[in-house]
């Protein structure tokens, strides 16, 4: 299991005056304790033209990288695998399975897409750090690409589409991922990548 690097970076508030406040859950929501932070935290996810992806801090430091096509593996900044994401075959609405490291022996969570009028909706079923099975709900607007992540009906995460810089021709999509305190950043990255996959399908 990789060790998270959040403690190395200065935290950046994920709120603005026009946005609702993210709510810290009653206990940590995490796959790996090293990837949560005691304060709200934001990172930038960039999906590249070859379907790989990079995650950077607000200061531009490389934090994670995603590589692969059908099976995507998320690596930390030192190249150690964190999780891999696979889309289940014959899944009409899209169902994804996330495993520890590069293998398939330890299933960490599943993400299931649901039809929703005027937007997107996903259900995340995961095994939390304390071995408790929990569910999160992901709701988004397809038109403005603004997505919120809920746990027990409170907002614990947010995904906003950014406009790539015109000079950056290798970046196809860019998102700001905001996590409430003690919400796993790896979880937010995986949700974002699955959402991006669904958006591309229309």
Question: Tags for this entry?
Answer:
202 residues; 12-stranded antiparallel barrel; 8% helix; 45% strand; globular; disordered N terminus; Tubby C-terminal-like domain-containing protein; Tubby-like_C; LOR_sf; LOR
Q: Helix and strand succession? A: EEEEEEEEEEEEH
Q: Please outline the major beta sheet.
A: 12 strands, antiparallel, barrel
Taking pLDDT < 50 over at least 5 consecutive residues as the criterion, the unreliable ranges are 1-18
- Main sheet strand line-up: 1-2-3-4-5-6-7-8-9-10-11-12
Tertiary shape: globular
Give the DSSP E fraction (strand runs of 2 or more residues): 35-45%
What percent of residues adopt helix (DSSP H or I)? under 10%
Tell me the count of domains: 1
- The average pLDDT score comes to 83
Oligomeric category = single chain
Task: Please count the beta strands (DSSP E, at least 2 residues each).
Answer: 12
Any idea what the radius of gyration is? 16 Å
Distance between the termini: 35 Å
The number of helices is 1
Family: Belongs to the LOR family.
InterPro entries: LOR, LOR_sf, Tubby-like_C
Protein name: Tubby C-terminal-like domain-containing protein
